[in-house]
Amino acid sequence: MAVVVGTAIEEYALLSDRRSAALVSRDGSVDWLCFPRFDSPSLFAALLDDDAGSWSIRPAGPATATRRYLTATMVLETRFRAADGTLTVTDALATGGDRDPHALGAHAPHLLVRSVACLDGAVDVQVRFRPRPEYGLVVPLLVPVDGGINARGGPASTVLSSPVPLTIDEGAAHGTVRLRAGQTVRFALHWGPLDGQRPRAYGDAELGGELDRTVRAWRAWSELHQNYQGPWRDEVHHSGCVLQALSYQPTGAIVAAPTTSLPETVGGERNWDYRYTWIRDASFTMDALWVAACPDEAAEFFAFMTTATATPRAGARLQIMYGIAGEHDLSERVLPHLSGWRGSRPVRVGNGAWSQQQLDVAGELLATAALFADRLDAADPTLRAFLPNLAETVTQVWREADYGIWEVRGAPQHFLYSKLMCWAALDRAVTLADRLGAGERTGGWRAARDEIRATILRDGWNDRIGAYTQAFGSDALDASALLLPIVGFLPADDPRMRATVEAIAAGLTDERGLLYRYRPELGLDGLSGREGAFLPCTFWLAHVHALAGDVDAARRVFGRAVGYANDVGLLAEEVDPATGALLGNFPQAFSHIGLVNAAWAIAQAESRARSGNGA
After folding, report:
1. Which part of the chain is the Trehalase-like N-terminal domain (predicted)?
2. Number of helices (H) and strands (E), helices first, in the chain?
3. Is the dihedral of CA 65, 563, 592, 335 positive or negative?
C-alpha cells in the first residue's frame, strides 16, 4: 500500500488579515490560502491534496528552520540555517492601514507579502508558485507582466510580484535567486475579482511599507487591548491575538477555525468545515477576549448576531451557526477530487449541522451579553428587543430533545449540556431584565429557570455511574458536564460535582493525561471510528479544579494541555493519543478560548488563596 504523505498539522503557522487566512509550513510553503474571505474557495490547498496548489520560498539545499511571530503580531518570521548562510522569510497577510487599532484589517488589500533577507553568508533561494483556484479544480493561465506574473482562471485573478525572473511551466512558476549577506528581496501575491479592481504587481518599497504597517497595526491593537497580567501571560496574550485573527473584520463574525476537513482521526470520516460562525464558539470567544483583550469587539459581535439571526419575534429559533457575512444556508457538499489530509476523506465544504436544533445557543449568547452588561445601556434597540425574545423562546423549547453541543448525527436526546444552557439563558435574562426594559417578563423566566434546575438535578444525575452524565437516562460520561460549575449552576466543590469531576477524570482521560469529550466507540454520535483527546475539555478540567480551589491540580492539567501548542503557540482541536500529534481544524478557536479562561480561573484562585478567602 502506498504511503500517504501530508505535512503534520503542528508544522503550520497562521497568517490572517481578519478577512482571510493562510497556513505556512515550517519549510516555507503556503499550503492553504483562501481569498477574499475565510470561507472562499482556496487558491492553495496542498494541505488537503498535493496537487491543489502551494507557494514555497526556501533555501535550495538542506536547511534547518526555526520560527516565531514578531512580538505582539501575527506576522511570521522563519529563519533557515543553510550550509553557507542564514536566511529569514517574513510572511504576513497585509492588514492595510495602521492608524485605528479598532479597525484592524478594515482596509486589508488581499495581499500576501513574503520578505526574504540573507543575514550572513550566501544562500540560493528557491521559489515555486503553483496556484490552483477553486479547491484545486482550476489550473490557471500564467502570463508574465511587468514586475511579476498574472494568474488567470476561475472567477478571480492574482498577480505574483517577483523581483526575479521565474520560469513558467505547466501552470507553475519557479526560479532560484542567490542572496548574499545584507540583501533583501520581497515577493507578494495580490488577489482581485474579475468584476472588480484588478490585482497588480507591487514594488519593493511598497511591499516594505505594507509589511511595516501590518506590524504596527497588530502591535497597536495589542497595546490597546492586552491587559491580562496573570499566570501564562504570554500564552494568554498570544491566544488573544489568535482569536482576533479568526474574526472577520467587516461583520464581527468569528470563525471556529480557518480550515476545512482536517480530521479528528487520520483516515477517518470525522472531517468538517469550520470556517463559519457558531454562536456557541463565537460567544465563548467574546468571553475569552474579555479576559485576554478589551471588550470593544463586543459591539461588532452583537451587531452581527442581531443582523444574521433576523429573529425579532418571540418564539423564533436561532440557527446554531451562520456564514461570516450572515448567510443562513450552509449546505454541505463533498469535494471528491481532493484526497484529503493524509488520505482522510471525504473533504467537505459547508456544514450540515447548520440545520440541527441545538438548544444551548441562547444560553451562550445571553451569558456573553451578561458579561458585557454595562455596554447594553447604549445598545441598538434591535439588540435590546432581541435578547429578551431569546429568553422567551427558551421557555417554550427547553423540554425538547436536540443534537447537543457535539452535533451528533444520531438521534436527538435530552442532553445535559443543552438543558444547562437553557437554565443559563434564563438566569442571565433575569439579571439583564431591567437593563433591557423587560422587567415584566421575569416572572415567567424565573419559573422556567427553576423548573429546569430541578429537572437537571433530578434527571441529569445517574446513581449507577455516580455522576452527571451526557444525557438524561444515559450511562455515558461527557466532559461537557464540567460546565456545570463554570456557568454557575453548581459550586465546583459540591459533592456531586466533585464526584462528576472524578468520574470524568477516571473515565475520559487518555494515557497522556488529556480528556476525550466522550467515548465515540460507544456509537452514540451516529459516526464511525474514534477521535483524539479534546484540548478544550482538558482546559475545562483545569478550570473546574481552579474553581474548587485545587490550584495544584489545575496547574498540572493546564500544563499538560498547553504543552501541545506548537512552536508558534497554536493549538488544534484534538491530540492523537498514540502519537501526540495535533488533529482537527487548525488553529482552533475553542482550544485557545479554553486556554484563556482556564488561565484566568487559575489566576483568580491564586488570588483568593493569597487573600485567605479559599475557594
Report:
1. 7-177
2. 13, 26
3. positive
Q: Where are the domains of the chain?
A: 13-221, 226-611
pLDDT reported for residue 5:
61
pLDDT tens for each residue of 25-34: 999 999 999 9
Which of helix, strand or coil describes residue 331? coil
Residue 606 has pLDDT above 50, yes or no: yes
- 137 near 153, Cβ under 8 Å? no
| Cell 482550544, residue located | 591
**Is 567 or 527 the better-scoring residue by pLDDT?**
567
How far, in Å, CA of 487 to CA of 590, rounded?
16
Query: What digits encode the pLDDT tens for the residues 413-459?
Result: 999 999 999 999 999 999 999 998 999 999 999 999 999 999 999 99
Only one residue has cell 439579571, namely 431
CATH 2.60.40.1120 for domain 13-221: no
Rounded CA-CA distance 544/605 in Å is 10
**3-state SS track over 484-527:** HHHCCCCCCCCHHHHHHHHHHHHHHECCCCCECCCCHHHCCCCC
* pLDDT tens string 385-399: 888 988 999 999 999
* Beta strands at 582-583 and 574-575: parallel, antiparallel or unpaired: antiparallel
Handedness of CA 51, 56, 61, 67 (dihedral sign): negative
Question: How far apart, in whole angstroms, are the C-alpha atoms of residue 403 and residue 425?
Answer: 18
- Under 8 Å between Cβ of 504 and 547: no
Fold for 226-611, please state it.
Glycosyltransferase (1.50.10)
Residue positions counted in the chain: 615
Name every residue whose Cβ is closer than 8 Å to that of residue 358 and which is 6 or more positions away in sequence.
Answer: 280, 320, 402, 403, 404, 405, 407, 418
| CA dist 562 → 81, 554, 571 (Å) | 28, 12, 8
pLDDT in tens, 465-481: 999 999 999 999 999 99
pLDDT of res. 4 = 47
Of residues 240, 245, 214, 217, the one with CA closest to residue 227: 240
DSSP assignment string, 412-472? -B-BHHHHHHHHHHHHHHHHHTTTTT-GGGHHHHHHHHHHHHHHIIIIIEETTTTEE-SBT
